[in-house]
Amino acid sequence: MLPALLLLAAGWGLGCYFETNDDPAIILMLRGTTAATPVGNLHLYFHGFSNLLAALYHTWPALPWYGLVLYGLLYVATVLVFTVLDRLLVRRVPPSKLTALLILFFLTAWLEHGLWFNYVRVPVLLAGAGVLFAAQSPRRRSALVVGVVVFGLSWLIRPSIAVLGLLLAVPGACWLSGRRAGLIIAAAVLWAVGGAVVLNMLRTPQASALRTIDVPKANLNDYQLLRPVPRTATDTLGLQSVRAWMMADSTLVTEALFQRATRFDLDYFLRHTAPAKLRVLLSLVLRDYFPLLLLQAVLWAWVAMSTQVAGRRWFWLVQCGYIGLVLMLGVGLKLPPRLGLPVFDFWALSNLIFVFRAASAAPERRLVAVLAVLAVAAVPYTYKTLHRRTVLQAERQHNQQLRQRLTAALPPTALLVTDVLPATYKSASPFRNPDARPAKMLMLTGWTTADPSQAAWRQQLTGTRNFAAGMRHLAQQGATVRWLLTPHVANLLNQQVQTLPAVNAISLLPDYKLFTQPTDTIWYYQPVVETAK
Questions:
Q1: How far apart are CA 296 and CA 340, in angstroms?
Q2: Which pTM was predicted?
Q3: Distance (Å, whole) CA 17 – CA 11
Q4: Rounded to whole angstroms, how far apart are CA atoms 173 and 179?
Q5: Pairing mode, if any, of strands 227-228 and 262-263?
């Protein structure tokens, strides 16, 4: 009951907000707002789940199924982690102190998962929690079944992140039951490898094409591992489009583009990119995870002073491993909050398991010290959380008002072609469906533009899968199509359309300005068509 009460209390008191606009973009696809029909296959993520969610939205569209399902799985992960901590200390410390530990751990190390939500949090937490739960009771077949099923669900949501959750939980699992933890670890590895083989066998040509640009796109935009080295004007336009997340034009944004016009420059990365990312990482860790850092300092001090504790050498090797993983993710890739807190959560949980499993005597005294550290850290962390809630509430209100302003004059049956509107769902509630207007949108930016469903959507609208030809066709449809764009994207779109043979010269020109923000201006654009003579 305690996990449910804490999650409900936090949600009621602080609210729930999307960390990014990735989740709303997925919801819009599942509901069929940004596709020809509800998208039941997201190819790289939500294997099986997307089919279920699309069917639920089709049958009962008024319910926020995405939030209900994923928060349900977040609740399962919370229950499993609380169960591991409870069984670790039950009958060894007073129930009141154990309850205090669970509450303080939630407030300082877990609350953010529900407050600042992103779907990526679910598979990493679920996978790690399932492995720890099964490892704690290696002789119970039911615990193994729960662990395998939970890991399987997390793998279906996002395979690579589930594997990360498994990796994070391995030290804690081994410290819980030694070699007997190998059974759940082996079962999870078998699932991951077998699942990857099955997915590879069933992968469609469209999914394969999506993967060929998904990885280099992430290396360029997300991880900053690649440097642009365009050789032609077409290369420049292609890279500018990728930078703007305009990846719908499969003739422009191709695997060959990345092979030809980008490269990994190790010297530049070590001299410029890595130091900048390291500074950002250190700032993030110190600002956001200081309660867990203080807890780690206490646990490290105990292990350093406990010279008779078995396994100290392995403990310090594991700490080096966690530090190396944080550096690899933060500097080599990226460590956003949706991954950062889970990493530090399982690092702290593993160390708690080591310390309290080794504390055959006086565990209560050590628990009191842990409670004191978490209680002290909870004071500034509570202030930080309340400040974050204020910022998120203001962002949500601003985005809602902006969205209403942008769509106020939009005809109910009009198709909206835009790069603007989905971004206004950042900080929206996971338990509220997107607005009914516009009923249909064609997205020009975002990672979803590379999804195969978008080519099918354009073909239904225009009769062609060719992006530039489809945009030229839509530009001739008059008031049934509205263009809500930022100037940068409008300029790139004009350049892409101009690559076509000049049967009709078409340009999108600003019609009227709706809003000016610090980074860009939002306009409704009017297509101007000139017949070539």
A1: 15
A2: 0.95
A3: 10
A4: 9
A5: antiparallel
